[in-house]
Amino acid sequence: VQLQASGGGLVQPGGSLRLSCAASGSIFSFNAIAWFRQAPGKEREGVGCMSNNDGRTWYVDSVKGRFTMSGDNAKNTVYLRMDSLKPEDTAVYFCAAERLGGTKWTDPKGWHYWGQGTLVTVSS
User: Fold this and answer.
1) What is the spatial distance between Cα 109 and Cα 123, in angstroms, rounded to a whole number?
2) Long-range pairs for 6-11 at CB < 8 Å and ≥24 separation?
3) Nearest to 10 by CA among 79, 90, 80, 68
4) Bridge partners, 75 (sequence order)
5) What is the pLDDT of residue 101?
6) What is the pLDDT of residues 79-89, one digit of tens each?
């Protein structure tokens, strides 16, 4: 299984970006999809998670109300819409699939498959 994240770039504070995560197989065959990010010198942190069983989503407090996950079956893609971006959102963003049992969704060790990262830079 290969995951492909894309859509990163340079955006001004207050701007928006939409990241995409595609899979080599059906991305909706996994039990869940998550987005993580890692800023320079910091640990990888969970940003959002979406259950493919019932479509429920969860977000870390720092992005609630600004970031939204969604999926498109026809395009076999999961998206992370990011609005009202702040400089502190600058990071490499990764998508992950297939949540393992016994861990919080925010724990990177709890995910089986990872895509390569896409860089998001929020700066004026």
Assistant:
1) 30
2) 6/118, 7/118, 8/92, 8/93, 8/117, 8/118, 8/119, 8/120, 8/121, 9/119, 9/120, 9/121, 10/121, 10/123, 11/85, 11/120, 11/121, 11/122
3) 90
4) none
5) 83
6) 999 999 999 99
